[in-house]
Amino acid sequence: MEEAIHLIDIPYYSANRNVLTNAELKIPGLKMFGKHTMTTAVSPLPTHYHKNSFEITYVSDGVITFHVGEKDYKLRGGDVFITFPDEVHSTNLTPMSVGEIFWFQLDITNPNNILFLNKVASRTLVNHLLHLEHHLLKTNSKEMLLLLKKSFEAIFYNKNAFLSSSYITVFLQKLLDCNTLPETKLSLDMESSVNYILTHLKEELPLEMLAKLCNLSTSQYKQKFKAQMGISPRNFINFQKIEASKLLLEKGMDITNVAMELGFNTSSYFSVVFKRYNTYSPSEYIKKLKLDI
């Protein structure tokens, strides 16, 4: 078993990934705050923990896997994943796939001074977070995403710690309300569309055709699918095709035949999409399978 490391984030700035730490944030208890837009898959998170700190990850787009204890949790847009102080977690060797996340760590070493709250409010917030019953929470994706966007923009662009902290406080209070909410069900047309996609992965699945099956325009279909599934329809289709391709590769089918089987125009395009979602190519995946035998 991989030994867990104490992972400490460092400041990072790029077009797709920005990470602020306490030195830049200057918000009591907020250890770090980050945003990452993944246009291609990135390497799996190692087995790690955060000392005295909650880590709260909001998935705004895509499908992300987290692993705690003996269980895998698969998140999609609108989902929040919480790890508790010193709790060991990872992505269980699964790459972080195409999508976008916001995440922050709340250090409760001093529970009397969190997010500029007074002593009573601060301790109450920490106590409620410690008593959360679930790692994975379903949220009102638009509202929660807007709060995190405003919070991140307030501190990243305007250096306004008080405004940023206020948005995070509201986010956390609304998150606590989500602890008892049932999982949102898909509308009948979206449920039918998802089932159609999963049973027709060998086809090209143009969005215009899928929208027509739901009696929606293409733009309406894309918006409704993303709102309910937390991932764009094209991203969902590609992700499912690549997951299906792994099973075919594991059975010994060659790359070209797998590409044709799943409706890709060429094996080279299939390889590009495969690597985009996994960080490695189909041929590298086959080699990895042989090494694991």
Textual characterization of the structure:
It is built from 11 helices and 11 strands. It has about 290 residues and is of the alpha+beta class. The chain folds into 2 domains: about 5-180, Jelly Rolls, CATH 2.60.120.10; about 190-290, Arc Repressor Mutant, subunit A (Orthogonal Bundle), CATH 1.10.10.60. The strands form 2 sheets. Strands 2, 3, 4, 6, 7, 8, 9, 10 and 11 form a 9-stranded antiparallel beta sheet that branches. Strands 1-5 form a two-stranded parallel sheet. Strand 2 and strand 3 (about 15-20) form a beta hairpin. The two termini are about 20 Å apart.
In a nutshell, what does this entry contain?
This protein has 293 residues and is α+β, with helices and mostly antiparallel strands. The chain has helices at residues 22-25, 119-130, 141-156, 161-177, 188-199, 207-213, 218-229, 233-250, 255-261, 267-278, 282-292; strands at 5-6, 12-13, 17-21, 30-38, 48-49, 53-68, 71-76, 79-83, 89-90, 99-107, 136-138.
